[in-house]
TrEMBL record, chain A:
Main location: membrane
PANTHER family assigned to the protein according to its UniProt record, in alphabetical order: ABC TRANSPORTER ATP-BINDING PROTEIN, MALTODEXTRIN IMPORT ATP-BINDING PROTEIN MSMX
One annotated GO biological process: carbohydrate transport
Subcellular location(s) per record: Cell inner membrane
Keywords (A to Z) from UniProt: ATP-binding, Nucleotide-binding, Sugar transport, Transport
Descriptive protein name: Multiple sugar transport system ATP-binding protein
GO MF term (any one): ATP binding
Species name: Kaistia soli DSM 19436
Superkingdom: Bacteria
Sequence similarity: Belongs to the ABC transporter superfamily.
SUPFAM superfamilies according to UniProt: MOP-like, P-loop containing nucleoside triphosphate hydrolases
Automatic annotation (TrEMBL), chain B:
Keyword Transport: yes
Keywords annotated in UniProt: Periplasm, Signal, Sugar transport, Transport
Annotated compartments: Periplasm
InterPro entries per record: Bact_solute-bd_prot1 (IPR050490), SBP (IPR006059)
Role, per record: Part of a binding-protein-dependent transport system for a sugar.
Protein's name according to its UniProt entry: Probable sugar-binding periplasmic protein
Membrane spanning stretches: none
Signal peptide residue numbers: 1-24
Similarity-based family: Belongs to the bacterial solute-binding protein 1 family.
Automatic annotation (TrEMBL), chain C:
A Gene Ontology term for the protein's cellular component: plasma membrane
Record has Secreted as a keyword: no
Protein name: Carbohydrate ABC transporter membrane protein 1, CUT1 family (TC 3.A.1.1.-)
Residue intervals of the ABC transmembrane type-1 domain: 68-281
Membrane topology note: Multi-pass membrane protein
Taxonomy, superkingdom: Bacteria
Length: 362, 413, 295
């Protein structure tokens, strides 16, 4: 098992800076997910760790060793790709063993490792097939197996499930999680799918514009996003954002919406740099709003509802707050007649408030 | 439906052709292979004479392979139903099958009117006559059996013009020693055949020549006389240079004109190159009509006139036939070409020294007919393969050569 | 919806011209050629029957035997040479070099030339008294000898070299298209696996490109059987008859030597040879196709 440490990493493609002075420390056996929209630099970062790209500045350390200028094969990493990247004219067994043969591993050792990987991934019956004779899920297992046989300490996954259909994706996601438990290896996983990120990760690094926006546990990311980008990117359906102004003068702290409604936000923990009359955005997740009961420390939110979207286990109710679109998640059994204007409730301590211009959490 | 369309297109094309040719009267498209400098100058004489007589000469020269390419193109067009007005052949059997198939027009009307039968050399006339009818217009008498030499090169090497083969090789050794190529030879197969026939007649004699080509006598091939011919031919290989392959005949001739080489076996058309270079045959370049055994070889070129449905084209053919054998055109053409006229009623006083030698030999009855007259193109092709293959491969012995010629003669019977 | 039967009739009618062309233009001419090869035809068809006489003469003819050997030597050298050089050129261009399009054009340029031009260029280049040999000698190496063109036992290789020079660009273009289709992640995977680049090409890319190699080989093979103008321009069949090829044999006897019977016998032998060579391949294709559908 090995730690991975990225120090002041910068990568330029020509004149374009793709990664900006990036630092990331990954503990032994940790499962890190790099999450972000396409073009955010997450794959670039992963390729840099793998040694498939030259870095412009900074260092990469794996297992306490500076590997910045090492060949990929000498970094102790295994990598799994979105397109599987299997060697098409070789059997599954050939795919698993080719790299080892090139490294002049003794043949008994190769046999042993292939058998072990095949067992772990349950691909033993497929060993003599060609990639073209396998399903997408089977192919990705073989691709994982190819990393597995190399006995590496760090696994790199580059959007490994993106080419699979929804059902297989769920299955393999569980498989990868199980594998992580079984092997205890350090894993770095790139995805744009927040569900994968939230379910798999010990910590998520949300990236945008070549910068890590927030590095935290899935729960922290979800509950206390550090900025509006993270808040909006994580969660489905996304967080509701309503613009307004802070009112921190006399009495309880309030958030004044553009139509004049004043929300009582006592209970919200400001990080200290909030000012009175500051234009701000309040973010409330759909499931943080309750249409029925006013919980402890909850505050009133007037909302006009006009559409119900039943989704089985729960339903989404769409409406407006102060003229801004707003979604509320309710239990699937509950019933709402639309259109209707009601007073809903939310707990300010769960909400997030961001500076309107910078987007930073207040 | 498809066939009907095709037929209609065909009819339309035919109408267009007829209209087209009717518009341009006396137009004659002539396929020939006279493309080197001297040859082109000679053929211009015909074109000028024809144009002066009211025709329009359309030149369709096809270069390559000693006429192979031109004959192939012409026969293709005749067989394909789109014959040229006239096309060139060598005097001989090359156009036999065209005659048997009735694809060539007889020329007897023009021949009678122009007195061909009285004035053309009888051997030549026989070569263009089939079943009593004349099927081709002979335009010249060519003699292939000439050894040309550069007096300047010989002098430089301290050698003199040879009178027999031993002297020839002695001179060759001196030329070699002086850094001069002894024998300028082309890589083309037909020129090597020509060299062989030179040796065969010069060293073997007229009788051996006829036994082999006319009688197809295998015993003659296996005779000591032929072995001697084979040995000389084999030895000649050592007197050529490595630039032989890829060299054209006129480039080879040019080598003796400029003194880069000593000897060149070539037909009398080599004179055309000599004249074109501003030199005089007989003095600047020496000529020997058969080394050791002097004979005048009768070959040459003829024009045939394919049967034609278009009366205008037929008219052009008649005019062309007349012009080609007119005494003036004969002299003008042959002087440039290096050959001698087929007619005896023309002014021969202007012929060069070499041609004069040839005419003298012919008058004395020292003549042989060309191989084209004696053997079919098929058999001739087999000889060509065997000769060229032997001449360019020094690992083959003269015995190998005798064996291969014997098998060809056997097979040709 | 019309009944299936009528739709199929319509399709058959639409195909009729194609069928007529196949039957008359292709099969008809083949049958006629074979028929003529059993006659004594010289220039114009005579429909007598002389049995195997033309074939006996054909195989007793040195030139035909040499032509066959040359076709084999030329074919093997040409196809293998083109595939190797074409692949190397394609790999070279695939390295994302600068001025790629310039190199691509240069490599493909010879293919745009006719065989005649190629032949003449190489004839001049390799002529011992004009080309490379003389040039090097003029530079001072008096003993330098490169006279393959005028050596009967080597000239056929010169023809193969000229052919390779001309056709490698085509193979390059075909293979480059294949190389460009290779998933970039495959390269990354191989790099992570620590596989040397040349091994990736040899063990992974080449097998992937096998359909392209087959296409290129078929195209080259047809060029081999047809080879004629290159020989005409480069050596004219010489020195002697050492670089004769079957196509030239057929053309010579068809026209200039006026023995169509022998020429058609030679073309029939060529045709049968091609069939014999192709049959196992066709069979395997068909057989594999059947098995593929079954799976």
């Amino acid at each position: 098992m090995a730690t991975v440490s990225i120090r002041d990493l910068e990568i330029d493609f020509g004149t374009l800076r793709v990664l900006q002075t990036l630092n990331l420390d990954i503990a032994e056996g940790e499962f890190i997910v790099l999450l972000g929209p396409s073009g955010c630099g997450k794959s670039t970062l992963l390729n840099a760790v793998a040694g498939l790209l030259d870095v412009t500045a900074g260092q990469i350390w794996i297992g306490g060793k500076n590997v910045t200028w090492e060949e990929p094969k000498d970094r102790g990493i295994g990598m799994v790709f979105q397109s599987y990247a299997l060697y098409p004219r070789m059997t599954v067994k050939g795919n698993l063993s080719f790299g080892l043969k090139m490294a002049k591993t003794p043949s008994e050792e190769i046999e042993k490792r292939v058998a072990k990987a095949a067992k772990i991934l349950q691909i033993e019956p497929l060993l003599n097939r060609r990639p073209s004779e396998l399903s997408g899920g089977q192919r990705q297992r073989v691709a994982i197996g190819r990393a597995l046989v190399r006995d590496v300490e760090v696994f790199l996954f580059d959007e490994p499930l993106s080419n699979l259909d929804a059902k297989l994706r769920t299955e393999l996601r569980v498989e990868i999680k199980r594998l992580h438990h079984e092997l205890g290896s350090t894993m770095i996983y790139v995805t744009h799918d927040q569900i994968e990120a939230l379910t798999l990760a010990d910590r998520i690094a949300v990236m945008n514009g070549g910068v890590i926006q927030q590095l935290a546990s899935p729960k922290e990311i979800y509950r206390r996003p550090v900025n509006r980008f993270v808040a909006g990117f994580v969660g489905s359906p996304g967080m509701n954002f309503v613009d307004g102004t802070l009112s921190l003068g006399a009495g309880a702290p309030g958030f004044v919406l553009s139509d004049g409604t004043r929300l009582d936000i006592s209970g919200y923990e400001f990080s200290g740099n909030a000012k009175d009359e500051q234009p701000a955005t309040i973010g409330i997740r759909p499931e943080q709003v309750d249409l029925k009961e006013k919980g402890e420390d909850a505050t009133i939110l007037p909302i006009s509802l006009n559409l119900v979207e039943p989704m089985g286990a729960d339903s989404l109710v769409w409406g407006h707050v102060s003229g801004t679109q707003f979604a509320v998640r309710i239990d699937g059994d509950d019933h709402v007649t639309t259109p209707v204007t009601v007073d809903a409730f939310f707990s300010p301590s769960q909400a997030s408030i961001f500076d309107k211009t910078s987007g930073a959490r207040l | 439906m498809k066939h009907m369309t095709k037929a209609m297109f065909g009819a339309a094309a035919m109408v267009a052709l007829m209209v087209g040719s009717a518009g341009a009267a006396e137009k004659a498209e002539v396929i020939h292979w006279w493309t080197s400098g001297g040859e082109a100058a000679a053929v211009q004489q015909f074109a000028a004479a024809f144009n002066a007589a009211g025709g329009e000469w359309v030149d369709a020269a096809v270069a390559g392979g000693g006429g192979d390419a031109a004959r192939t193109a012409g026969i293709n067009r005749i067989v394909g139903g789109n014959p040229p007005t006239a096309m060139q052949f060598n005097t001989g059997k090359q156009f036999d099958e065209l005659v048997t198939q009735g694809l060539l027009s007889p020329l007897d009307d023009v021949a009678d009117a122009e007195g061909w039968k009285q004035h053309i050399n009888p051997l030549v006339l026989a070569a263009v006559t089939r079943d009593g009818k004349i099927y081709a217009a002979p335009v010249n008498i060519h003699s292939n059996i000439w050894l040309w030499y550069s007096p300047a090169a010989l002098e430089k090497a301290g050698a003199k013009a040879p009178t027999n083969w031993d002297e020839f090789f002695a001179a060759g050794d001196k030329l070699k020693a002086a850094g001069i190529v002894p024998v300028a030879q082309s890589g083309d197969a037909w020129t090597q055949v020509l060299t062989f026939n030179n040796v065969l007649i010069g060293a073997g004699g007229k009788d051996l020549y006829y036994k082999i080509y006319k009688d197809l006598d295998v015993d003659a091939v296996k005779s000591p006389e032929f072995k001697k011919v084979a040995d000389i031919f084999a030895k000649l290989r050592d007197y050529t240079d490595s630039g032989m392959q890829g060299r054209q005949w006129n480039q080879a001739t040019a080598m003796i004109v400029t003194g880069q080489a000593g000897f060149n076996f070539m037909g009398d058309w080599a004179k055309g190159e000599v004249i074109a270079a501003g030199k005089t045959p007989g003095t600047d370049v020496g000529c020997i009509p058969g080394l050791g055994n002097q004979e005048f070889w009768i070959g040459g070129d003829v024009f045939v006139f394919p049967v034609n449905k278009d009366p205008e084209a037929t008219k052009a053919q008649k005019l062309l036939e007349k012009v080609l054998l007119s005494p003036e055109a004969q002299v003008a053409f042959n002087n440039k070409k290096g050959s001698i006229p087929v007619r005896d009623d023309v002014d021969l006083s202007k012929v060069d020294a070499c041609a004069a030698q040839g005419i003298a030999l012919a008058k004395a009855g020292n003549v042989v007919e060309s191989t084209d007259i004696l053997i079919s193109p098929d058999v001739s092709g087999s000889f060509t393969d065997a000769i060229a293959s032997f001449f360019s491969d020094k690992s083959k012995t003269s015995d190998d050569f005798v064996a291969s010629i014997a098998s060809i003669v056997e097979g040709a019977k | 919806m019309k009944p299936r039967f009528f739709r199929s009739i319509a399709a058959q009618i639409a195909l009729l011209p194609a069928w007529l062309i196949v039957i008359f233009a292709y099969l008809g001419t083949i049958a006629w050629t074979i028929r003529i090869s059993f006659t004594s035809t010289k220039v114009f068809p005579t429909y007598d029957f002389v049995g195997w006489k033309q074939y006996e003469r054909l195989f007793a003819t040195d030139r035909w035997i040499i032509s066959g050997q040359n076709l084999f030597i030329f074919g093997a050298c040409f196809i293998i040479g083109c595939l190797i050089f074409g692949f190397l050129l394609a790999v070279f261009i695939d390295q994302k070099i600068r001025a790629e399009s310039v190199f691509r054009t240069i490599f493909l340029y010879p293919y745009a030339m006719s065989f005649i031009v190629t032949g003449l260029v190489w004839q001049w280049t390799l002529n011992p008294t004009l080309g490379v040999q003389q040039t090097v000698r003029n530079w001072g190496w008096q003993d330098f000898t490169f006279d393959w063109l005028v050596r009967g036992d080597r000239a056929i290789y010169v023809i193969a070299i000229a052919g390779i020079w001309q056709a490698s660009g085509l193979v390059m273009a075909i293979l480059l298209a294949g190389l460009r289709g290779v998933d970039q992640e495959l390269w990354k995977a191989a790099k992570v696996d620590g596989i040397p680049t040349w091994r990736v090409y040899l063990h992974i890319i080449v097998p992937m490109l096998s359909p392209m190699f087959v296409t290129a080989t078929v195209l080259l093979a047809t060029a081999v059987v047809k080879v004629y103008d290159l020989v005409i321009a480069l050596t004219g069949g010489g020195p002697g008859i050492s670089t004769e090829v079957p196509a030239k044999f057929v053309i010579d006897y068809l026209f200039n030597r006026q023995n169509v019977g022998l020429a058609t016998a030679a073309s029939t032998v060529m045709f049968v040879t091609v069939l014999v060579v192709l049959a196992p391949w066709l069979y395997s294709q068909y057989f594999r196709g059947q098995r593929g559908r079954g799976a």
